[in-house]
Amino acid sequence: MAEAEAGDSPRRGRSPKRLLVVGVGIALVVLTFAYLLPRIADYRDVWDVITTLTWEWAVALVAATALNVLTFAPPWMVTLPGLNIRSSLALTQASTALTYLVPGGAAVGLASSFGLLRSWGFSAGAISRAVTLTGVWNQFANFTFPIVALFLLTATGSPGGLLTTAAFVGAAVLGVAVAGFAVALWSAELAREIGDVAATFVSWVLAKVRRGPVGPWGEPFARFREDTVDLLHRRWHVLTLATLAGQLTVFLVLLLCLRAFEVPGSEVSLVEAFAAWSLARLLTIVPLTPGGLGVVELGLTGALVGFGGANAPVVAAVLVYRFLTVVPTLALGLLALATWKRHRPLPEGA
Q: Closest by alpha carbon to 90, among 75, 108, 107, 72?
């Protein structure tokens, strides 16, 4: 009984923290949509702008949204042989939908991807490699975009503002991440040492909550490193292109929303729109709310208005952009979860 109470105490200790995080997230969402955005543009004016959408622009937005959904799949197909496009789409929509419903951001998406793939019978090693590579490549892109955006703004003579700080942060984090990733893959011996150190640390943490130690991780890490290096040697360029396609089609949806709601290039140029989008994506690295709800809308609107966009059209474009990039994936993801067993592929080498 004493052991059960000792094991349960960390959970009780974490509950207030979780409630605090949830409370802060809810407060941020309410503050954004009930107070801050209406101060930028009255919702009646925003609705008036939305109702001006022509059928030609509506078709373009639907097509861009469909293209964006389709580009979720290729990175997983590259990193996990045996995953076909139908199964990959089901996986990505389901895991992304969970990130919109549960606080935790990318960590929730990666963890859910692991669990869903295990239910299909893929090996833990193959899944770990795919989860690691898709996650790392996505984060590389997130930290690279602000750097590229700052360079483009400088080249076109536009002020960087907050993006300058974001670009420096992105460059620093990207440099550390690339260096750490390269070190981890440097040699089999180093991978063994990292695995053993990680196992020792995890066993120490588990001992604090009266759990047994984990086994040595040296050899599994070495095998993981060998498989990862082999896949990257053959497919790094395909993975990079697939990741960029998936990310940039999201930007395409935003750009079309801006133009559809009459935020012309004379107010917000292509480069400025890309810079604002890059900054907004960087803000979601810290998962304050599920899917960055409230954070993205506020950050993106502030940046676009700061570049010169008219208030009501910008808010209309941002809200429609967020609808198109969240709601279809949420609906498709919940449908995929409800019909999960039907999407199971035939794993190859899993």
A: 72
Give the pair of three-digit tokens for residue 350.
């899993």
Burial call 8-37: b when 16+ CB within 10 Å, e when fewer: eeeeeeeeeeeeeeeeebeebbeebbeebb
Q: Mean per-residue pLDDT for 163-186? A: 58
Mean residue pLDDT across the chain: 80
Tell me the C-alpha to C-alpha distance, in Å, between residue 271 and each of 133, 160, 282, 303, 322.
29, 11, 17, 12, 20
Cβ atoms of 131 and 107 closer than 8 Å: no
Each residue's pLDDT tens digit, 77-123: 999 988 889 999 999 999 888 888 876 666 677 788 888 888 888 88
Tokens for 2?
């004493």
Could you tell me the CA-to-CA distances from 226 to 39, 44, 122, 192, 272 in Å, in that order? 55, 58, 18, 11, 42
Model pLDDT for residues 50-86, shown as the tens digit of each residue: 999 999 999 999 999 999 999 999 999 999 988 889 9
Highest mean pLDDT among 70-84, 216-230, 265-279, 312-326: 312-326
The pTM is what? Answer: 0.81
Domain spans of the chain, in order of start? 2-343
The whole-angstrom separation of Cα 279 and Cα 198 is: 33
